């Protein structure tokens, strides 16, 4: 089988994936990237089912997306993705570039993945996997660090949500795209009409299981009002579930 270090696929934006302005919703931008990453991994034998045979699962730990433009209904989107190596000894780093067929950029992103043992739910170090991955060390999509965010205490609560049936994924916890929907819902239609989302970072801290309730708080960063910080606290466990930061510009 031919090795494909760089995976390229073309999709079209579905009407069901767009918002009240016919623009691609951020959660579906994330979903498209995840599906492309899954297709790439599956092609090389380390996709969901290939890893499941080894009692291993991929877990998305952090992501950062920088948006240049949001396509609309039926627009074609070309997704390019690749693995760029290991960082901090535990993160498998994968980058993405999204563009229009004429080359105009739509988004660029960097994702950090972990691997866990499904039986013990413990972290597995990359060196312990005894697998070969097609890294491209010198190609960078988003050259920005995925650091801890640490939103301050005292942010106003925006919503309380519960992990119901529609939020749960193959691993039995809340799917990563749902977090982005929750974050998006912290803002009004007027916010999305008058401003443009420039970038988004999400750090998944502790998994959310079925039936658990999450308090979501959000507010502007005191040091940079165009940046908003978001925090999700698990009301059942008392643990922080996720942290996020995002940047706005005038539409």
Write a structural description.
With 251 residues, the chain is of the alpha+beta class. The protein folds into two domains: 1-146, Roll (Thiol Ester Dehydrase, Chain A); 147-251, Hotdog Thioesterase (Thiol Ester Dehydrase, Chain A). The chain contains four helices and eleven strands; from the N terminus they run βααββββββααββββ. Strands 1, 2, 3, 4, 5, 6, 7, 8, 9, 10 and 11 form an eleven-stranded antiparallel beta sheet that branches. The chain is globular and about 50 Å long. The model has no long low-confidence stretch (mean pLDDT 96).
What topology emerges from the helices and strands here?
Layout: E1 7-12, H1 26-43, H2 48-52, E2 56-67, E3 76-87, E4 91-99, E5 105-117, E6 123-124, E7 157-162, H3 176-184, H4 189-194, E8 195-204, E9 213-221, E10 224-234, E11 240-250
Antiparallel strand pairs: 1-3, 2-5, 2-8, 3-4, 4-5, 5-6, 7-9, 8-11, 9-10, 10-11
Helix pairs in contact: 1-3
In short:
By secondary structure, the chain is of the alpha+beta class. Helices cover 15% and strands 40% of the residues.
Unreliable spans are none
State the end-to-end distance.
Answer: 46 Å
Radius of gyration: 18 Å
| Oligomeric grouping of the chains | single chain
Mean pLDDT: 96
Keyword list:
251 residues; alpha+beta; Thiol Ester Dehydrase, Chain A; 2 domains; eleven-stranded antiparallel beta sheet; 4 helices
């Amino acid at each position: 089988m031919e090795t494909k270090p760089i995976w390229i696929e073309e999709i079209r934006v579905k009407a069901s994936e767009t918002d009240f302005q016919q623009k691609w919703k951020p959660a579906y931008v994330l979903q498209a990237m995840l599906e492309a990453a899954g297709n790439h991994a599956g092609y090389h034998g380390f996709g969901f089912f290939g890893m499941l045979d080894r009692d291993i699962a991929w877990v998305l730990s952090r992501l950062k997306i920088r948006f240049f433009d949001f396509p609309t209904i039926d627009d074609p989107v070309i997704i390019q993705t690749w693995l760029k190596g290991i960082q901090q000894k535990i993160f498998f780093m994968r980058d993405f570039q999204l563009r229009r067929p004429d080359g105009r950029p739509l988004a660029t992103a960097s994702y950090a993945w972990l691997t866990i043992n499904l039986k013990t739910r413990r972290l597995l170090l990359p060196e312990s996997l005894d697998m070969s991955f097609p890294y491209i060390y010198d190609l960078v999509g988003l050259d920005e660090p995925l650091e801890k965010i640490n939103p301050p205490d005292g942010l106003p609560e925006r919503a309380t949500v519960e992990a119901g049936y529609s939020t749960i994924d193959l691993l039995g916890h809340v799917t990563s795209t749902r977090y982005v929907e929750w974050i998006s819902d912290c803002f009004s239609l007027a916010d999305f009409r008058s401003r443009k989302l420039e970038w988004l970072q999400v750090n998944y801290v502790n998994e959310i299981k079925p039936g658990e309730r999450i308090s979501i708080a959000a507010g502007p960063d005191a040091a940079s009002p165009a940046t908003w910080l978001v925090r999700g606290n698990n009301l059942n466990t008392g643990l922080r579930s996720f942290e996020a930061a995002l940047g706005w510009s005038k539409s």
